[in-house]
Amino acid sequence: MNETRHDWTKEEILAIYDKPLMELLYDAATIHRKHHDPNTVQVSTLLSIKTGGCPEDCGYCPQAARYQTNIEGNDLMSVSQVKAQALRAKASGSSRVCMGAAWRNVKDGPEFDQVLEMVRTINKLDMEVCCTLGMLTENQAKRLAEAGLYAYNHNLDTSEDYYKDVISTRAFEDRLQTIDNVRKSNVTVCSGGIIGMGERLGDRAGMLVALASLNPQPESVPINALVAVEGTPMADMEPISIWEMVRMVATTRIVMPETQVRLSAGRTEMSREGQAMCFFAGANSIFAGDKLLTTPNPDVNEDMAMFKQLGLNPQKPFIKVSQPKTVEAGDSQLQPLGEKPKWTRPGHIIERNEAVKDRAKVTE
Ligand code: SF4
Fold it and tell me: Do 110 and 242 fall into the same domain?
C-alpha cells in the first residue's frame, strides 16, 4: 500500500478520492507519517520577479496580457531587490524562495543571466531556491542547476483531456517536455495543479495519474484552489469547498507518498480548521507572504499563530529525504525508525533512487 507506484489508473484514484472521508483521512495520514514528520510543514515564499504582460492565455491567470485585470505589470526585479525580499522571507520562517516570471519560455540573454545571479544569491543565503519561468530547454535547466537551483516549478495544471479548455497557446505535451528537461539536470521537480477550474473529478484524477506516473515522481506537488480573478475567463467560477481540497490533498498524498504536498493558492478562503485537516491529510508545505504572485494570501503572522496553535514546526531547508515513521495499531506514539533525516544541498543531491532504497532498508 505504501510503495511508490507509477501505474495508478484513473479509476483507482477516483475510488480513493471518493472513499468515506474518515477512511480517506486515516489512510492518507498513515502514509504521511510513514514518510514525513507530521508536525513539520515547510514555509515557502513566492516572489513575482517579473509580473504581467504574459503572451500565454491560461484561463485562470491575471498575468496574461490579453485579459483586462487590475494587475500592475513589472519588469524583471533587480538582484538586490530579490535578495532583500529573500532575507525578509528567511527572517519570517521561510526555508524556500520560489521566483516566478510571467514568461512563455526562458530566453537566453541578459534577463536569464540576471535570474541565474538571483539563484546564486539566494543559494548563498542557505535557502532552497525554486524558479517558475515557463518552458525551459535542457541546456537552460543545466545552467540553472549550475547556479544552484534546487527546484523548478512547472505545473501540469489539470488533466491532459481538460488542458486545452484551460490553455490554447501550448499543449500538455510541452509541459511534460520541460519537466523532462529539468529531470536531466540535478534540479528537483515541482509540478501540481489547480482545482476549481470547471474540471470534472475525472480530470483531477487524470492529473494525478500524469504526475504519479512520472518516474521519479515530482519531489513537490502544489495543490491550488482557483482564485477567480475579475477579467479572466474564469472570473465567475464557483469556489471549491474545503472538502474537495481535503480530498484532493489526501488523494495526492496516497498516490505520491514521498512528495512534498503544497497547500498553495486559495488558503485565504480556508479556515484554520480546514487547513488543519489538509495538514492531517498530508499537506506539508504552505506559501507565506501577503501575495501569491498576484493573488491574496494569509498574513505571515497569522500563519505563525496557526503553527503555534497546531504545534507545527517550520521545516528547515534542504530536507530531501523525510524521516520514515511507523505507527503500530492502537499506538498513539510515533516511533521514528533509523537514522536522523538526511540533509543535502544543491550540487550534492542524493540520487533519488538511492534514497528510496535506503528508506526501504530502514522500513523493512
Ligand atoms: S500562468 Fe504563467 S504562462 Fe500562463 S498566463 Fe500566467 S504567467 Fe503566463
Answer: yes
Quote the distance between the C-alpha of residue 56 and its chain's center: 21
Residue with the nearest Cα to atom 2 of ligand 1? Answer: 102
Count up the domains in the chain and report the number: 2
Domain boundaries, position 355 = 327-364
Q: How far apart (Å, rounded) are the C-alpha atoms in residues 346 and 141?
A: 13
Question: What is the full per-residue pLDDT of the chain (364 aa) written as tens digits?
Answer: 547 999 999 999 999 999 999 999 999 999 999 999 999 999 999 999 999 999 999 999 999 999 999 888 899 999 999 999 999 999 888 999 999 999 999 999 999 999 999 999 999 999 999 999 999 999 999 999 999 999 999 999 999 999 999 999 999 999 999 999 999 999 999 999 999 999 999 999 999 999 999 999 999 999 999 999 999 999 999 999 999 999 999 999 999 999 999 998 888 889 999 999 999 999 999 988 666 566 666 677 888 889 999 999 988 888 754 444 433 333 332 223 333 333 333 333 333 333 333 333 333 2
Pocket of ligand 1 (CB under 6 A): 54, 56, 58, 61, 63-64, 102, 134
Give the CATH number for residue 311. 3.20.20.70
Q: 241 and 359 share a domain? A: no
Specify the residue with its C-alpha closest to ligand 1, atom 4: 58
For the record, the C-alpha cell of 134 comes out as 515557463
Radius of gyration (C-alpha) of the chain in whole angstroms: 19
- Counting from 1 in the atom list of ligand 1, the atom nearest the Cα of 55 is 8
CA of 237 to the centre of ligand 1 (A): 18
What pTM, to 2 d.p., does this model score? 0.86
State whether residue 27 is helix, strand or coil.
helix
**61 noted as active-site residue:** yes
Give the whole-angstrom CA distance, residue 115 versus residue 202. Answer: 38
Do 246 and 356 lie in one domain? The reply is no
Same domain, 334 and 276: no
